[in-house]
Amino acid sequence: MSRLEVGVAVTRGSFALDVSLTVGSGEVVAVLGSNGAGKSTFLGALAGLYRPDRGSIVLDGRVLDDVPVHRRRVGLLSQSALLFPHLTARDNVAFGPRSTGSGRRAARETADRWLAEVDATALADRRPSELSGGQAQRIAIARALACEPELLLLDEPFAALDVDVTPAIRSLLRRVVRAAGVTTLMVTHDVLDAVVLADRLVVLDAGRVVESGPTADVLRRPRSAFAARIAGLDLVPGRSCPEGLRTAEGTVIGGVHPEPVADGESAVALFSPTSVAVYREPSKGSPRTMVPVRLAAMEPHGELVRLRAGVPDGGPGWVDGLAADVTPAAVADLGADPGDELWFSVKAAEVEVYPAGR
């Protein structure tokens, strides 16, 4: 098992990536972020596809900055299996060991062992054209691990698979990666991938790390807008105040402080969309935060309907993207359509305020 220490800056056109990250030996870290956040650029730098403008990549004590791609001991599993079409499944898996100096017989024995690990022994003599998408990805997993990489890079490994195949391949990858104990970085848009596979989440935004922590902690108490969205929570940025949180526009969001947050400290207010009530007119009563919104979209969400907020004319910008989960009956009572102006309301007892991430 190998420890990875990264501190790199990469410029591609007008985009600048500047990331510092440590991944412990055998740890699995998921890298998340919206499109354009820098995930692919970061993975490309680790794989040797992009040369950093400054910084270094250290894997198991080896500085990889000037090490050719084929000598980095880095395995890559991407969206597409990218198997050699003229080789059988066994020979595709054996290619890695052969390229690192193993003899033909030893490489084939290694290939057979990994084919068995991914439950694909019966596919050994088939060519890629004879494999389904899920079968091809099993072979690709075996090939990526057969050369015993010190670092495994997973680039959206399930994105091209059918939805009925993905759960089995996800479980398989978890099993073999854990068994191999290989240090792993995974880029994904799917929170389920992170929950099933990752020990830790790292969130990128505009080429910078904005959040990092154990998977369960980040999803339970996200500190960035992207992490809140994938965790299914509403997030409002601002600064802590005795009542809860004060936004940049001066709106006070009533809330509780589960952990100490100094007054004036950068903070985020978190609450579930199921805690949000929706009205045509401002409501009075128990301590609530009431904000005007423009209904941007309505979409099914299990047995509920999710109402997405947009910014009303002259309204606070932070409401954009907030969600409220209400019953179909409540939607019928509102009689609202996208574009209508409504009020979102949440009780202070339902809002938790935490220190913000970097």
UniProtKB/TrEMBL annotation:
<dbReference type="Pfam" id="PF03459">
    <property type="entry name" value="TOBE"/>
</dbReference>
<keyword id="KW-0067">ATP-binding</keyword>
<feature type="domain" description="ABC transporter">
    <location>
        <begin position="1"/>
        <end position="231"/>
    </location>
</feature>
<keyword id="KW-0406">Ion transport</keyword>
<dbReference type="InterPro" id="IPR005116">
    <property type="entry name" value="Transp-assoc_OB_typ1"/>
</dbReference>
<keyword id="KW-0813">Transport</keyword>
<dbReference type="InterPro" id="IPR050093">
    <property type="entry name" value="ABC_SmlMolc_Importer"/>
</dbReference>
<dbReference type="InterPro" id="IPR003439">
    <property type="entry name" value="ABC_transporter-like_ATP-bd"/>
</dbReference>
<dbReference type="InterPro" id="IPR004606">
    <property type="entry name" value="Mop_domain"/>
</dbReference>
<keyword id="KW-0500">Molybdenum</keyword>
<keyword id="KW-0547">Nucleotide-binding</keyword>
<protein>
    <submittedName>
        <fullName>Molybdate transport system ATP-binding protein</fullName>
    </submittedName>
</protein>
<dbReference type="GO" id="GO:0016887">
    <property type="term" value="F:ATP hydrolysis activity"/>
</dbReference>
<dbReference type="GO" id="GO:0005524">
    <property type="term" value="F:ATP binding"/>
</dbReference>
<dbReference type="GO" id="GO:0015689">
    <property type="term" value="P:molybdate ion transport"/>
</dbReference>
<dbReference type="GO" id="GO:0016020">
    <property type="term" value="C:membrane"/>
</dbReference>
<dbReference type="GO" id="GO:0015408">
    <property type="term" value="F:ABC-type ferric iron transporter activity"/>
</dbReference>
<dbReference type="InterPro" id="IPR003593">
    <property type="entry name" value="AAA+_ATPase"/>
</dbReference>
<keyword id="KW-1003">Cell membrane</keyword>
<keyword id="KW-0410">Iron transport</keyword>
<keyword id="KW-0408">Iron</keyword>
<keyword id="KW-0472">Membrane</keyword>
<dbReference type="InterPro" id="IPR008995">
    <property type="entry name" value="Mo/tungstate-bd_C_term_dom"/>
</dbReference>
<feature type="domain" description="Mop">
    <location>
        <begin position="284"/>
        <end position="355"/>
    </location>
</feature>
<dbReference type="InterPro" id="IPR015853">
    <property type="entry name" value="ABC_transpr_FbpC"/>
</dbReference>
<dbReference type="InterPro" id="IPR017871">
    <property type="entry name" value="ABC_transporter-like_CS"/>
</dbReference>
<dbReference type="Pfam" id="PF00005">
    <property type="entry name" value="ABC_tran"/>
</dbReference>
<dbReference type="InterPro" id="IPR027417">
    <property type="entry name" value="P-loop_NTPase"/>
</dbReference>
